[in-house]
Amino acid sequence: MKFGLSTLKIAVIQMDVVLGELDVNLKKMERLVREAAQSKPDVIVLPETWNTGYFPKNLAELALSSGKEATKKMGELAKDLQIYLVGGSISEVYKEQVVNTAKVFNRYGLEIASYQKIHLFSPGEENKFYTEGNKVVTFNIEGHLCGVIICYDLRFPELIRRLALDGMEILFVPAEWPHPRLEHWRILQKARAIENQIYVIGCNGVGIGNGVKFCGHSSVISPWGEIMREAEEKEGIFQTELETDAISEIRKKIPVFLDRRYSKYQLY
């Protein structure tokens, strides 16, 4: 068992999710995860709502029938392949409410984090189909504190700053980010990385759902704001390595957390 790694190998799966087709998506997810695992990454990342798509009109019915199965399968894959699986997010039912939940599993197949999307995209009526979450979540991967948010959450810098103040070094962002806002996707990831001096791993979907075209371009952004890897607009897998020592080096060079004067401009 590896522990305290200074280099983490990440595999990002950019998936074309088929709206409302639970079995198709489950089989595709497993195939892509197994393919990604062949190069022995430490972490594999999936996009938002990969089980149902974003989001069918009969969402409640599909979330009820598929949430538990999707969770079970992700845990089995993580254990079988000996990987950390940042399982994007799934539509599921929690306490009789439909929620958009990001789940993370360790190498033993145990669920180590569960985050319910806080900011629901009201222009797309996401708030009419899902119930919002109410807590932030961090988790540990090989000695490194990580956080996860979902898609629209990326537009709310105070959420990511809260995670960074808790010590987060790596932020995972599963998404179904659409055209024509590709440049927003790129710029917001860079901004969150630079202002918090963290790695940002954005895992987006591709294809079309409910007439919305998702823009792909999953990416890995360094704590210096540089694009380390960026996918094109098609289904596939890419891999990269994170040099985690870079985080402390950058924070020493530009000590924004030491120089903060939040008492003069507290928001809450």
Would you write up a description of this structure?
This protein has helices at residues 22-37, 59-81, 126-129, 157-165, 182-196, 245-253, 256-259, and strands spanning 7-14, 43-45, 84-86, 90-94, 97-105, 111-116, 138-141, 144-148, 170-174, 199-203, 206-209, 212-215, 219-221, 227-230, 236-243. With 268 residues, the protein is α/β, with parallel strands linked by helices. It has a single domain, classed as 4-Layer Sandwich (Nitrilase/N-carbamoyl-D-aminoacid amidohydrolase). Strands 1, 2, 3, 4, 5, 6 and 15 form a 7-stranded mixed β-sheet that branches. It has a 6-stranded mixed β-sheet with strand order 7-8-9-10-13-14, covered by helices on one side. Helix 5 links the parallel strand 9 (170-174) and strand 10. Helix 1 packs parallel to helix 2. The longest helix is centred in the first third of the chain and has 23 residues, at 59-81. The radius of gyration is 17 Å and the shape is globular.
CATH superfamily: Carbon-nitrogen hydrolase
- Low-pLDDT segments: none
Q: Count of DSSP E strands?
A: 15
Report how far the terminal alpha carbons are from each other.
Answer: 42 Å
Structural class: alpha/beta
The number of helical runs is 7
Per CATH, the architecture is: 4-Layer Sandwich
CATH-defined topology: Nitrilase/N-carbamoyl-D-aminoacid amidohydrolase
Quote the average pLDDT: 97
Oligomeric state: single chain
Question: What string gives the helices and strands in order?
Answer: EHEHEEEEHEEHEHEEEEEEHH
Largest sheet properties: 7 strands, mixed
CATH class: Alpha Beta
Question: How many domains comprise the coordinates?
Answer: 1
Domain CN hydrolase: 8-244
Family: Belongs to the carbon-nitrogen hydrolase superfamily. NIT1/NIT2 family.
Organism: Candidatus Desulfosporosinus infrequens
Protein name: Carbon-nitrogen hydrolase family protein
